[in-house]
Write a sequence for this structure.
């Protein structure tokens, strides 16, 4: 059995987080090769193409989705990718009863009334915190300028100040089953002149902000919200949980202490294999092998 792990030209073999997966697949008799999604590789010859580090698609979304549609066997599948590459899904999940960070959608031509307090303005199509702005209370000029610069659909969310102390908790599901979790440190600097972007430097590729990650053991409340988010997504998309080869549920703590969904990553998330037990790569390999058997 042959698998392609789809990447991008800037990082043709990803950033190293998935390295152990290749060996774990080999242990199961599955040969895996890396290839940038737009490289012209013979993806149709593979038994399965697994989307991994396709982090340059944000400026070329129609082209990327057309490529996804051309791949006979893709994971996650095309309908999931099409839905998940536009963060408007946050509104759908909130409507489905998942506790989420309050989200307002903005489209070009809108003249927003900026809310009181700190808030975040980010593109609806984006990865790695690129293009995300944390706006200080009352800094309408910064918000107006960023909104004009984005010139695209965007999300407006109140900033969750607990992130500064506790970061985000990312819960990873493989083949629909919970696998492991890790914490991501705060990424956004306080608003203010000259200090409106991510706290960390961008990776040399410019595709994402460098993250501070550490292992995590989520409490029961976070586990419940993450499970609810995966269940709601499967229902909305009309798929089985097992059809989601991977899912990363990013949670923050709201002002009242309860976990809230910040993002649900189903297209190209880092899965934090370097931040958890070595068996996680084997769990992913097993989920890939199961997906191969189902096709």
């Amino acid at each position: 059995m042959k698998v392609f792990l789809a990447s991008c030209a800037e990082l043709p073999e990803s950033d190293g987080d998935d390295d152990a997966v290749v060996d774990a697949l080999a242990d199961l008799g599955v040969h895996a090769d890396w290839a940038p999604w737009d490289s012209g590789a013979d993806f149709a010859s593979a038994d399965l193409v697994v989307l991994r580090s396709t982090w340059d698609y944000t400026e070329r979304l129609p082209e990327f989705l057309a490529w996804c549609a051309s791949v006979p066997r893709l994971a996650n599948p095309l309908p999931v990718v099409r839905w998940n590459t536009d963060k408007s899904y946050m509104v759908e999940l909130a409507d489905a009863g998942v506790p989420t960070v309050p989200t307002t959608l903005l489209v070009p031509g809108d003249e927003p009334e900026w809310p009181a307090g700190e808030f975040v303005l980010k593109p609806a199509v984006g990865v790695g915190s690129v293009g995300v702005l944390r706006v200080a209370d009352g800094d309408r000029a910064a918000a107006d300028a960023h909104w004009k610069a984005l010139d695209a659909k965007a999300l407006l969310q109140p900033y969750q100040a607990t992130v500064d102390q506790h970061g985000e908790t990312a819960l990873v599901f493989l083949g629909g089953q919970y696998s492991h979790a890790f914490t991501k440190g705060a990424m956004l600097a306080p608003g203010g002149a000259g200090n409106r972007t991510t706290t960390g430097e961008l990776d040399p590729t410019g595709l994402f902000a460098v993250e501070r990650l550490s292992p995590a053991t989520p409490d029961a409340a976070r586990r419940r919200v993450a499970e609810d988010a995966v269940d709601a997504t499967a229902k909305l998309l009309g798929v089985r949980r097992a059809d989601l080869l991977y899912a990363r549920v990013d949670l923050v703590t709201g002002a009242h202490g309860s976990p809230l969904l910040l993002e649900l990553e189903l297209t190209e998330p880092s899965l934090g294999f370097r931040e958890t037990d070595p068996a996680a790569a084997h769990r992913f390999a097993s989920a890939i092998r199961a997906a191969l058997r189902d096709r």
